[in-house]
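INTERNAL AUDIT FORM
Audit reference: QA-55
Scope: verify that the stored structure record matches its stored sequence.
Auditor: D.O.
Record contents follow.
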Amino acid sequence: MEKDTVLEVNNLSVTFDSEEVLRGISFSVKRGEALAIIGPNGAGKTVLFRALLGLIPYEGEIRWQEKIRIGYVPQKFLLDRSVPLTVQEFFLLKSPHFWFPPGSFLEHLEHELKLVGLSQQILSRPLGELSGGELQRILVSWAMLDHPDVLLFDEPTAGIDLGGEETIYNVMHRLQDERGTTVLLISHDLNVVYRHAQNVLCLNRRMVCHGSPQEVLNPEELIKVYGEGGFYHHIDTNSH
């Protein structure tokens, strides 16, 4: 593995109940890069993330750089809204001093919340009373709290309004620029992919294409991914 490579995947395949969900996936990711993963529903995008996190069995090779720290923002977070847990208590689950957190932890937490456009006032609110957009921003802050080397975003702006969506992607850029954070991003919005990713991996149970947004996000390649007449967002390249 090269020094600036944080992830190498070679001939990755995943099978569920004799059904091959992913087959022969190979790619690498460099430090500080934003790799977007696109494809139709059922293409295996979230399955790929689960394999990268070691949550499901797979065949092939996944090699992370040694001592890498990984943060993960899931597409869906199943929350029992009857549990009386405040936002601060939720974050304190990451603190080594759960009931008596040091002031530095709370200062750090407030900084991470500010990055995603939230104030410290949200810390006293019950987790179950947050809107979908607020909860998603909390999950992004949770993933960033330990300053991971790599962040895996599975549709990170689902349920967030346009202003909040822009905040999340600006945070992604800031993390890349200031911390050298590597980002793996699943998105159905190809305008977002065009604007924010350095490389794109196209999946439809197999690797259909891999390259820069300029190379991949064109009608000829997208037909290979989504099929003739398949749905994909129009990309306004004149706006970039």
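Auditor finding: record pair retrieved intact. The beta strands are 5-16, 19-30, 34-38, 59-64, 70-73, 150-154, 182-186, 199-203, 207-211.
Action required: none
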